[in-house]
């Protein structure tokens, strides 16, 4: 992207993993609301399950996740007791035992769990939900805390995919983000995963980190692809939000790459991934050409949820654990984020929902427009509006606001068909923002567009 455009559109906009986005959730949606929504689900629906493990052994200073640091296992064990009870409570609230196609363990760091507790959690899920052979079980791994016994346990309960947090392999960058993780540590874990049958390996990389250089990032990408041979790669931009995550204040802003360098990192990183044969998925994901995610992109069946781009087509995502977030046909729900408060609510037999939002027909319509833009980089508003039985002309004013992006060659407009150009891919979130009626009502502070 031209430097002038990079500077012009250095916007702060939502990531659009949901619509409406999280800043607009409110406490009017309670545990009782959630219980009613669960009971009202169509039993024929497929579910996706997300389990949030809200602990890490150390705090990575770049982290934007909801987590606590502990060196003792006792708090983790107590927390998992609450998670297990929540699983039982949610299952009891459903109209019947329902099919789960996807299970995702995130955090925090799921690798802080003992192998015994990880296995117990998966077995509990299997007893409360229906799983089939093709159901995916995915786990986010911190290679620094995943030993061979843990990886063997993953394989024993049918984990199919692991996402390895690599971030950057440069020692200076690792020191600056408080995450010392030599290449050999990650290499060993990847070897164990394949040895014990977890064949699908993702690698997570980050650009825009302190003291990171363009050459250093490209070396990390090349080394990770060559050494780990992942099927999917995520190349995320570091979101520096110290007003939200106080530990990020430990990162000196002067050490962060400037806007122009961030753009170069993103664009050159994408090019290197393409040179290695990866297909770019939306903004920041990449997949091997024969991977299910690349196929979903080609067939326009790709979706986006709180974990990012996904092949998961479930209309209901159930989140467990502190700050666990869920999406149901009726709306969104978020669990209490403070661990002790979450545990107290579950102990009292109360679903721990602290906020959320019921969605309207207009929300569903705009969500589909935004999701198709984020996934396909194009949308036919006439077709989407027609499927919702509304007049597409209501979006003409929003389309008109895209004039500057159109003039700069970042988006094309053909009637009501919008196509984000390859040069405009990095600003797809800015295109989506034109259809976000909540953002217009009162802007929130978000991460940079790239």
TrEMBL record:
Task: Give the reaction(s) catalysed.
Answer: coproporphyrinogen III + 2 S-adenosyl-L-methionine = protoporphyrinogen IX + 2 5'-deoxyadenosine + 2 L-methionine + 2 CO2
Q: Which InterPro entries match?
A: Aldolase_TIM (IPR013785), Coprogen_oxidase_HemN (IPR004558), Coproporphyrinogen-III_oxidase (IPR034505), Elp3/MiaA/NifB-like_rSAM (IPR006638), HemN_C (IPR010723), rSAM (IPR007197), rSAM_sf (IPR058240)
Q: What is this protein called?
A: Coproporphyrinogen-III oxidase
Subcellular location(s): the record lists:
Cytoplasm
Task: Write out the entry's keywords from A to Z.
Answer: 4Fe-4S, Cytoplasm, Iron, Iron-sulfur, Metal-binding, Oxidoreductase, Porphyrin biosynthesis, S-adenosyl-L-methionine
Listed cofactors: [4Fe-4S] cluster
Query: What Enzyme Commission number(s) does the record list for this chain?
Result: 1.3.98.3
Q: Name one GO molecular function term.
A: coproporphyrinogen dehydrogenase activity
The pathway entry for this protein reads as: Porphyrin-containing compound metabolism; protoporphyrin-IX biosynthesis; protoporphyrinogen-IX from coproporphyrinogen-III (AdoMet route): step 1/1
- An individual GO BP term: protoporphyrinogen IX biosynthetic process
- What does the entry list as the binding residues for S-adenosyl-L-methionine 2? 62-64, 167, 179, 204, 239
Q: Which domain of life is it from?
A: Bacteria
Family, according to the entry, reads as follows:
Belongs to the anaerobic coproporphyrinogen-III oxidase family.
UniProt key word Cytoplasm = yes
